[in-house]
Amino acid sequence: MANQYEKLVAQKARLKEKIDREDFKLRQSKYYENRQARKARSRRLIQKGALLEKYFQVDNLSVEQTEELLKIFADYVNAHKPSKLKKDPPNN
Which residues contact 69 (CB under 8 A, 6 or more apart)? Predict the structure, then answer.
């Protein structure tokens, strides 16, 4: 009886270690996915910022001044945006 108990305790310990390893892998995977998403977003923001500087020549403006400039033209641009560049309507 004691031998069977010891086997069960050992099995429990092995299973706990396996669960801990799998939990670590899951957390590592989520971290990697989040890191990749952050990198992609950073790259996209840098590219869009470069295009803004290129076409609007705002490299001499502060962030606040750039925002003011964009606010001035935002309504016009959004109203006249081609339909192919608009967000897709949500599918319900």
Answer: 56, 58, 61
